[in-house]
Each structure stands twice: as structure tokens, then as C-alpha cells.
Amino acid sequence: MNKILIIEDNVELRNNLIAILQHNGFSVSGVGSAEEFYHIILSDNFDIVIVDIGLPDKNDFELVEYLHQKTTCKIIILSARETVEDRVNGYGAGADIYFVKPVESVELIAAINSISAKIEAKNNEKSNSNQWVFEHKSWVLIAPNSKRMILTSKEGTFLSAIIAKRGEIVSKEEILSLLNYDISNPENNNSLDVLIARIRKKCREKCGLDLPITTYRNRGYSFEEASICT
Asked: What pTM was estimated for this model as a whole?
């Protein structure tokens, strides 16, 4: 089941939307501010995000741009702003659909169902490829079972380095340099070990799989399964 996040500062509207979507079988969470959004988006995975662009603690289309650039979520704008300029700016920021409030629940559900079908088709295509996919633009790693996890910049830098050279050993010195760690400082070796342990744990929790990373003592690291870096 695709997971939906609603970003809406109007508590009554947010709760009504959550109730309607849950009644129609969707898994839904809701937040009322940009601060809450940034916290939840780093701790959970969502497939569709419904965004109110009039949040008091974030201007205009910044959250839409963030979602478009940093995640693979599909984006539905739900706004009271109805000018053509607003719609154009919304789609330019990365929205898939722009609705003006109030929207009929049947139309919103139909849009979500349409997007969900496209997500499922894309996930099936990726799962059939039986490979790990690292999306550099969004810092997202997609496992062969189509589960996804959002990476920090250091996690993404490490994984992109070894996935780009799949099957080859990437030296510890090269990775430390890419991470801007001082190679001469032995404490940074421990920092790298901690980083890799965190990525492995995160992958098990988010994707239910073990990352196919092999450590070669005193030499480096290698990604051992089919993968692509986009």
C-alpha cells in the first residue's frame, strides 16, 4: 500500500482529509508545519505527499521544490491560491497535480489512485530488474524489493562511489577523500566504520535487506550485487 503524507496547517481540514483517505484504505500521516515535515520525511518513507503551499513557517513552493529534488515522492498541491501564475509555479516547482481548495474528495481519491497505479507499475519494473538503484539526484537508494531509503550526503557519497564501480574494490583512501576526511587522521577510519555500520542498519530497517557491501581488510570496499547509479 502506498503511504501518503498530508502537510496542512488547518487542523480541521487536515484531520478531515486523513479520515477520508483512511476510510478509503490509504495509509496516511499528517503534519501541520514545515518543521514537522522535515522531521518526518527523514524518518519515514512516503509515496505521495499532499502539500498546502500556504504554511506559516515556509514560503511559497519551497517544500514542493525540496520534495521534487530530494525524494521520489509524487506531489499533490492543495491550495487556496487559484491564479494561473500560481498553478504554473506549482508545476514548475515539481508538482504532479495542482488542486484548488475546496476539492471534492472523489476527485482527490481518483487522482491518488491514478498516481498509485503509476507508482506500482514503476516499482514492478524496478523489482523485475533485480538490482539496487541509487538515485544521485534525490539521494535515494532503492532495493530490489522496491523499498526505498533516503540517504544523508555522506551516506550517499559513500554508496555512489562503490556502486559506480560495482564489483571493484574502492580503496579506503579514495572514500575518505570523497568524504572530505583527513586521511592522515586515524580517527577518521573509525568515523568511516561508524558510517558504514549506520548505513547497514538503516537498510535493514527501511528495506528489510542486507546491503551487499564487502569489506576488504586494509584495502577497501566493494558493492557485490547488480546495481546502477543514476
From this structure: 0.58
